[in-house]
Specification:
homodimer, alpha+beta, Glutaredoxin, Glutathione S-transferase Yfyf (Class Pi), Chain A, domain 2, 9 helices, globular, cytoplasm (chains A, B), GST_Zeta_C (chains A, B), maleylacetoacetate isomerase activity (chains A, B), phenylalanine catabolism (chains A, B), Maleylacetoacetate isomerase (chains A, B)
């Protein structure tokens, strides 16, 4: 596969981790092809043998790029940041880079996994309460951290991977009826970011696989 | 705070994410001070107001370094890798770096959070079965990925952040009685890595806060 072939994103419109990658591609101006993996239909297309050969973890996103297949959204985002021109998604200053990664990982390891589809399917009837609990727990920690690090965006005045993680997590919080008024900094950052074109074009309501009754 | 002050690691001997940081410090030859945060005693010292001012997420590790406080082990590891001399914990090649991050995140986002203390405390009586389920789920995905990427270590023949994540996760798997014979590549890599000095000195059985009946 040639390095200049368009990347292929295996994703799902409502997957928050797929949305992270879509935002990164939009911010970097990277054209890509999308393959829908419907996480609900047919008991979940991520469970097929065919998709397991793409990502044995049975999750989206998975990205075919430059002849390799990468899973885990933050690995994909940092790979394109390191190999593609355009806006930098991690700051040059090592301390700021560390803060961007800390905030990204707080969301990607500390919140999102606990309200992931395969986890809440195991939780069953209590899934809304369970998800609210862990999103609230994470946001209670994130709010004071962002109060210290944020400028216009999560870390200072440049958009970064932290912002890419924040917006899809707030979208999930709203789906699970978390009261965002408790988190004024998160709420303000999210509103600012949603005005940016890269966050709009990548939004779950605007994807090729978005159902007609959910599109904007 | 001067940049050459020793870092302070707030950790716990048995915390797998604290162990990751200890391995990284040992591999880089970084001297540090340890402050014990006993996750069990007094209902959990991570819950105190005092510790929440260090890490609002009420988790270890947290590291004071170069005048800032960093939480999230992979952010700490990449920060010291970018700012300290010595062995490189991420390879120079972008594709290999991406694979290292993918494997690290598969563990740090896809497995560890689901068997974290604050999660299994919420699960209660079923916690062993729950933890086994999610570790097995993750290792079933990790095994074929490592079969493709591994040389002597997780990615090729150089020790990396992926190895730093692997060994503490296998330690947790063994605590939860996961049958490691199902995962020959993971088992082989773990055995190889445990022979290395940096993994030995950082081991949970060798820490200042290791209880007498658990030390080697």
């Amino acid at each position: 596969m040639a390095a200049n072939t368009k990347p292929v994103l295996h994703g799902y419109f409502r997957s928050s981790c797929s949305w992270r990658v879509r935002i990164a591609f939009a911010l970097k101006g990277i054209e890509y092809d999308q393959v829908t993996v419907n996480l609900i239909k047919d008991g979940g297309q991520q469970r097929t043998q065919e998709f397991q050969s793409v990502n044995p973890m049975q999750q989206v996103p998975a990205v075919e790029i430059d002849g390799i297949t990468l899973c885990q959204s933050l690995a994909v985002i940092q790979y394109v940041d390191e190999t593609r021109p355009g806006a930098k998604l991690l700051p040059a200053d090592p301390k700021k880079r560390a803060q961007v990664r800390m905030i990204s990982d707080l969301i990607a390891s500390g919140i999102q996994p606990l309200q992931n589809l395969y986890v809440i399917q195991k939780i069953g009837a209590d899934k809304v309460q369970w998800s609210q609990h862990f999103i609230d727990r994470g946001f209670k920690a994130l709010e004071p951290i962002l109060k210290q690090t944020a400028g216009k965006y999560c870390v200072g005045d440049e958009i970064s991977m932290a912002d890419i993680c924040l917006v899809p997590q707030v979208y999930n919080a709203e789906r699970f009826k978390v009261n965002m008024d408790q988190y004024p900094t998160i709420k303000r950052l999210n509103q600012t970011l949603l005005e940016i074109e890269a966050f709009k074009v990548s939004h779950p309501s605007n994807q090729p696989d978005t159902p007609a009754d959910m599109s904007a």
